[in-house]
Amino acid sequence: MNTPSLHLALRYVARHRLQTWLLAGALALMLAVPLSLRLFLRAAETGLRARAERTPLVLGARGSSLDLMLAALYFKRQALPPLGMDAVERLRTDGLANAIPLHLRFHAQGAAIVGTELDYFGFRGLQFIDGRPFARLGDCVLGAEVARSRGLKPGDAVFSTQEQVFDLAGAYPLKMRVTGVLAPTGTADDRAVVVDIKTAWLIAGLAHGHEDVTGNAVLRREADTTIANAGVRLFNEVTADNLESFHFHGDPGGFPVSAVLVQPRNAKAEAILAGRFLDPKLPAQLIRPLDEFQTLMATLFRVERLAFAMLAVVAVSAVAVAALVFALSFRLRQREFRTLDDLGVARGALLRTRLLEILLISALGLTLAGLLTALIFWRADAWMTLLLAGS
Amino acid sequence: MATLLAEHLSFRYPGGGFGLELERLELQSGEALAVLGSSGGGKTTLLRLLTGLLLPEAGQVRLNGGEPLGSLPADSLRALRLRCMGLVFQDFALLDYLTVAENLLLPGRFLGLEPGAAGQRARHLAERLDIADHWQHPAGRLSQGERQRVAVARALVHEPEFLFADEPTAALDPDRRGRVIDLLLEAGSSACLILVTHDPEVAARCPRQLRMEDVRS
């Protein structure tokens, strides 16, 4: 390598920082965008596929099977029509499968509240880095990212988000006690607030706790219902003192469930269950998340191919523009190169100086592209989870 | 001992512009020649012919009795210019993005000179020409006079055998003009110095003078 040429090229690149960064940035984007897109999809596919593979079947109300899969696995904000809790009980009674209900309607500080049962922790292989699982109504367990980003720990409290500000009869925010924090998993569980499904029903207004309704507070009594006046205080937090006052109204079999994670006992049970829900007139559907996931990825890869075709055109244009910029830059600096020529600097050295400038800027562009791609690759799982969870 | 010999030089710009006819010019180490004439009179053209930057239609220029410049391969001619000649251009021809120090050391870098010694000499020249305070300043930020002095210093750093200076004092005040001429003549004591000027006072400092009226055709 000719050192004076390298010195000149370095000095020029260093003194013209704006031009250098603009060119390097353009080159970096040209390389990083298609590369990152590919790596992002591949990495996301690997991470997300693992979750789909670990979830044999999902039961939900008939409708979009993709929406059901995205909601049940990645807690995507979806207005799923609910099933009744009796659907879960039927699956359990049959003895064909384990069934874990999910209630996915509410949020707390931007994180999805996942109403479920203790079996969920074992099913997903979730570990606690702090605290313990929920033990009573109103308790919650935080995903690692929720706890980290909000600075929460066991003993703190989290409020559920009120759904409808103007509905006076609607569900009020529930102050939930944090009992544990999950270890990071790189999945949607990191961004969830996990509660007992009864707590989710409590948030939905299907249960409540209040002061004793006695004396003047009683407006009238009907069969098994007491109508009280508005002076009776409703509790928005479950404590050891008021726990006993919380009670449910209505038939528990009709309480809503967004989806059910189904673990068939064996292949035969899986086949029986699949056959049972084939009829499109049934209000429920049983899906294989892996099939839905593969359909989703096939669509994404088709989009990726289309994006690649367009990016190829953009890349060719970008290379042409970069070449033009270099050519114009060298043309504008003709006097400078003539000076070097007049001083007696060899033609080869002048050519090397130009080439080294192009190489230095290209190397900077490559480095930027590498960093950008590495960043995207590193965060692909998390970003895809976030993307899928977005409303 | 360095010698410059130009014989039967003939040059005319394409399109019927003015031309030069120089029968003979011989210069040896320690000799200083001032080329005098009015603006546009061909002084720079003569200098470019003598340095090989322009090639004559006829005649030849030889340095140290070697091959005529016109018959040397282009790369050899460039190498000869870089190694043996110190050139001060009329428009200074500095690289604006380099510092004063980097501009002064530029020919030395391409010549492969030992950086320590070249750096010391460059620093010494900068001090003598009153530009040492700008040592680390980009040349693009200097005044015209400062740029001219940097151009003079750059031509002297590698101690060339042949010094060609085209109007090296045009942008300078009388005091600094005197210092630049002193330095050029001092360097010229061991080199062939050809100094183009339209200033009779500067020309008077050189023992030999050549008037463009005598060579223009």
What characteristics describe this protein?
heterodimer, A: 391 residues, alpha+beta, 2 domains, seven-stranded mixed sheet, four-stranded antiparallel sheet, 11 helices, 50% helix, B: 217 residues, alpha/beta, Rossmann fold, five-stranded parallel sheet, 8 strands
What does this protein structure show overall?
- The complex is a heterodimer of chains A (391) and B (217).
- By secondary structure, chain A is α+β, with helices and mostly antiparallel strands.
- In chain A, the strands form 5 sheets. In chain A, strands 4, 5, 6, 7, 8, 9 and 10 form a 7-stranded mixed β-sheet that branches.
- In chain A, strand 4 and strand 5 form a beta hairpin.
- Chain A is elongated and about 110 Å long.
- Chain A folds into 2 domains: 139 residues, no CATH class; 233 residues, no CATH class.
- Chain B is α/β, with parallel strands linked by helices and 217 residues long.
- Chain B has a single domain, classed as P-loop containing nucleotide triphosphate hydrolases (Rossmann fold, 3-Layer(aba) Sandwich).
- Chain B is built from 8 helices and 8 strands, in the order βββαβαβαααβαβαβα.
- The radius of gyration of chain B is 17 Å and the shape is globular.
- The model of chain B has no long low-confidence stretch (mean pLDDT 90).
- The chains are: A alpha+beta (391), B alpha/beta (217).
- The interface between A and B is medium-sized, with 20 and 23 residues.
- Helical amount among residues of chain A, as a percent range? 40-55%
User: Poorly predicted ranges of chain B (pLDDT <50, ≥5 residues)?
Assistant: none
Span of the ends, CA to CA of chain A: 56 Å
Query: What is the number of domains of chain B?
Result: 1
CATH architecture of chain B: 3-Layer(aba) Sandwich
Summarize model confidence as the mean pLDDT of chain B. Answer: 90
CATH class of chain B: Alpha Beta
Architecture blueprint of SSEs:
The complex is a heterodimer of chains A (391) and B (217).
Chain A lengths: L2 H13 L1 H37 L3 E5 L3 H10 L8 E2 H10 L2 E6 L4 E2 L2 E6 L2 H6 L3 E4 L7 E4 L1 H7 L6 E3 L15 E8 L9 E5 H7 L3 E2 L9 E5 L2 E4 L18 E2 L7 E2 L1 E6 L2 H10 L7 E4 L1 H44 L1 H10 L3 H43 L2
Parallel strand pairs in A: 5-10, 7-9
Antiparallel strand pairs in A: 1-16, 1-17, 2-15, 3-16, 4-5, 6-9, 7-10, 8-9, 11-14, 12-13
Chain B lengths: L2 E10 L6 E10 L3 E5 L6 H9 L6 E6 L10 H11 E4 L11 H12 L3 H14 L15 H13 L5 E5 L7 H15 L3 E6 L2 H5 L3 E4 H4 L2
Parallel strand pairs in B: 3-7, 3-8, 5-6, 6-7
Antiparallel strand pairs in B: 1-2, 1-4
Helix pairs in contact in B: 3-4, 3-5
